[in-house]
Amino acid sequence: MVPARVLVVRSALVSVGATIALAGAPAHAQFDPQEPPPGWTSPLDSAPPIAPPDLGGTGPQLPNNGTPTLPTVPNVPSNGTNGLSNGSNNLSAPNASSVTNAAQNGVQSARDAASNGVGAEDRYIAFRVGGDLGYARLENEDFFAVNAQVLFRVWNFRFGLAAPLRIDTARFRLRERDWDEGRDIARIPQCLRFDIGDYDRPSDRFDPACAAYGHSGQQHSRLYFSTRFAPVDNLTFAEGTLVNAFRTTLDPDHPALGLQSHFELWDWLKVQHFVDDVVRPRVTGGRLSLWPMQIVTGRNPDWRWDNRPDELELGVTAIADLAAPTTAQTAFGRPIVDEQNNLRFNSRAIGAVGFDLHYLYIFGQGDPNSAWRFGVYGALDYDRFLGANDMDMVNVAARFVAVNRAAGWDIRVGGDYRSVGNRYVPGYFDTNYSTNSQHFALTDDLRSLLGSASQVTKLGYLSAQPDGRSNGYRAFASVTIPIPITRTQHSGLPISIFFEDTERKADATVLVNVGPVQIDQLVAGAQIVRRNFDGPSDLFSLDGTLIRMFGQVFFGPPDQRRRGNVLSNLYFLARYDRRWNLQSTGSFAVTDDVQATFGFSGGID
Amino acid sequence: MTTIAFLRWVVSVVLVSALVACGDPGPAACNADAGAVAPSAAEVCTHLRAINCPVADCESGYAEWQRSMDMASFNRTTACYRNARTCAEVDTCNRACSTR
C-alpha cells in the first residue's frame, strides 16, 4: 500500500512533468491579463538601474492579497480567499528583502497586466533594442556614457544584454579599465534567465533587477522554478542575520556575473541558491524554507496558506566562502596586487549554517468593520560558522504589524535582541562583503581601533578576537506611505530604517531605504548603508557610507506605449552610487559615481 | 557500492571540503641565509614586478623598511624576496625572515 504522502509527492512530480510538457504553451496559464487601469504607471519597464533596496533584513512579510505593495494597483487580479493572503509573495520568507522583492514582483505583475494587454501572452518570442546616451562620472573622471541594450526571449528563456561604453570626455577614448581583461565580459549579460511554472507573465523589458517573478495565483497550487545569470545584488536570507543585502558588484572595475536560482513547491517549501561569480566562484549558498503546518496537514483546504490567519516558517541556510581572505600578502608592509589589479591574499574556505523559525499571526482577519489589520510576528535565528568557537549568533526578533490595505498604509515596528559571538558580525555576508572581506578597516573608527593592523581582513580580524560573547540589539521601523495618483489609485512610498549595535567597538550599522516609489511617470529610490562605526553618537557621517540613488522619468504616459506614443518610450535616467573601488596602490578608496542619460527602447513584446 | 551510494559519497566529500576549513598551510620557511646581504631596491622591485607581484611605490617601501627594521631581518627578508617565485612566497618571507 502506498502511503498518502508518497501519493501526494507523486502528484507533485506529475504536476511538474505536466508543467514541463506544456512548455510550448504560455507558462502562466493562471494569469489573466487585464486592461491597464487609467493612469497606471509603469516606469519600471526600463527598470531602475539598481535593484530595489531591501528593507533592512527585518520585518515580517505580511500576506498581501495579490495586490502589489508598490504601487497599489486595484486592477490586478486578486485570488486570495481570505482577504489577507493569496500566497503570491508569502512564500518569500518573512523578511524585509522578501517584502521588497514581493513588492517588486507585485509591481511587475501589475505592470505586466497593464502593459501587455490581452493576447500578448501567445507570443513565443520577443525582441527589443534600445540605448542610453549621456554623461557619467566615474572615479573622478568624466565620460560620455553610451549604453546599447538588446533583449530577446524565446519561450521561457530570456536574454538581456548590454554594451556599456564610457568615452573619456577629454581624450575621446574608451575607458580602458572597462574592457581590459577577461572578467569585463561580465558587463554584457544583464539578465539571462529561465523561468518555468506558475508566475505572472513578465513584460519583455530591460530588467537589471532580474528578480524571481511573483505570482498572483494561489500559493498552494504554485509550482515555479527560476534560474538567472545576473549580478547578485541586495540578497537577503531570512532576517538578514547571516546574509543581509549581499552585493558582489561594489567595485566598478571588478564586475561579476552571479547565478541565482529559485524553486517553489506549493505552500510547502521554497529553495534559493546563489553563486556570487560564475567565472570565479567564491561565495555560494542557499536557503531551504519549509511551512510545516501546510506540509503536515497535507493539502487540506482548511490549512492552506490562503485560509490561515497565521504562518509558521522554518528555514535552513548554508553558505560558504571558498576562498575567504585570511591575511593580505604584502611586501615592505604594502599590499601586493596581481596583473588584474586584484589584491593577493592567503585564504581558506569557511562555511556557515543558519537555522530560523518565524511565526506571524494576523488579527481581525475577515472583519468587515475595520480596514486596519494588526499582527504580531516573532522570529528566532541561529547562525554558526563551522569549525570556529564563538563565531555564531542567536537572534530573537519581535514585530508589531499594522496594515490598511485599502488606504495603502503598511507599518512595521520592532526590535531584536542578539547574543553575538566575538568572532561573528551580524549579517556577516553583507553589502560590503566583497570589499571588507579583503580589507576590514573601511571606516575611521575601525582604522583607529586597529591602528597599524589596518591591513587586516575581515576573517583575520575576527579570528584574532578572544573567546566570549556580547549582547546586541537591532531596532527596526518601516512605513509605506500612500501617495494618491488619481482619485481611485495610489502609489506607495516605502521608507524603512534599522539600526543595530553590540557592546563591541565599531560594530554599529545603520541602513535606510527610501522607495522605490512610482508616481505616474517617475520611479525613484535610495539606499544608505553605513557599517562599523561607534554607536548612535557617530550616526551622521559619510565615512564608510555606501549610498545608492536613482531616478527615472518617462516623457509620456506609460499606458500609451502600446498606442504608438513615442514619448512613452523615451526616458531620462539618473543615478548616483557611492562605493569603493580598489586602487592600483592596493587600497580601497571611495568613489562617487554619477550617471545621467537619455534613453529610448523599442521592439516587439 | 550502488550508484546512489557513490553519488552520496561524492556529494558528502564535496560539501565537507567546501564547508570545512582547509587548515593551516604549515610553518613558513625563509629561503635566505642568515648572513644574506640585502639586494638593492631596484633589484627587488624589478623582481617583484617580474613575478607579477607589483607593490605600490616599491622603492619608498624599501627605504621605509630599511629604516624601521633591524639590519639582519631586513637583509634576510629582502634577499628572500629576490628568491621568491610567487606572491605567496613573497608574503611568506615577511613572516618567516623577520622574526628569527
Structure explained in plain terms:
The complex is a heterodimer of chains A (605) and B (100). Chain A has 605 residues and is mainly β. Chain A has one domain (4-604). Chain A contains six helices and 24 strands. Chain A has helices spanning 4-21, 96-116, 292-296, 433-436, 444-450, 458-463; strands spanning 125-138, 141-154, 157-168, 189-197, 223-230, 233-235, 246-247, 258-265, 269-275, 283-290, 310-328, 330-331, 334-335, 345-363, 372-385, 392-404, 409-421, 469-484, 490-502, 508-519, 522-533, 545-554, 570-582, 588-604. In chain A, strand 18 (469-484) and strand 19 (490-502) form a beta hairpin. Chain B is mainly α. Helix content of chain B is 62%, strand content 0%. The longest helix of chain B is centred in the N-terminal third of the chain and has 17 residues, at 3-19. Mean pLDDT of chain B is 76; it is low at 16-26. Chain B has a domain at 40-100. In chain B, helix 2 runs parallel beside helix 4 (71-83) and helix 4 (71-83) packs antiparallel against helix 5. The chains are: A mainly beta (605), B mainly alpha (100). Chains A and B meet through strand 11, strand 12, strand 13 and strand 14 of A and helix 1, helix 3 and helix 5 of B.
**Oligomeric state of this protein:** heterodimer
Class by SSE composition of chain A:
mainly beta
State the end-to-end CA separation of chain B: 53 Å
Order of helices and strands of chain A: HHEEEEEEEEEEHEEEEEEEHHHEEEEEEE
Query: Which consecutive residue ranges of chain A, at least 5 long each, have pLDDT under 50?
Result: 1-121
- Flag low-confidence runs of chain B: 16-26
Strand portion of chain B, in percent?
under 5%
Main beta sheet strand tally, sense and closure of chain B? none
Would you list the SSEs of chain B in sequence order as H and E? HHHHH
Q: Calculate the mean pLDDT score of chain A and round it.
A: 77
- Quantity of strands of chain B, as a count: 0
Count of helical segments of chain A? 6
Count the beta strands of chain A. 24
The structural class of chain B is: mainly alpha
The rounded Rg of chain B comes to 20 Å
**Structurally, how many domains make up the residues of chain A?**
1
What's the shape of chain B?
A: globular
Helical coverage of chain B, percent range: 55-70%
Largest protein interface, residues of each chain: A-B, 29 and 27 residues
Mean pLDDT of chain B: 76
Percent range for β-strand residues of chain A: 35-45%
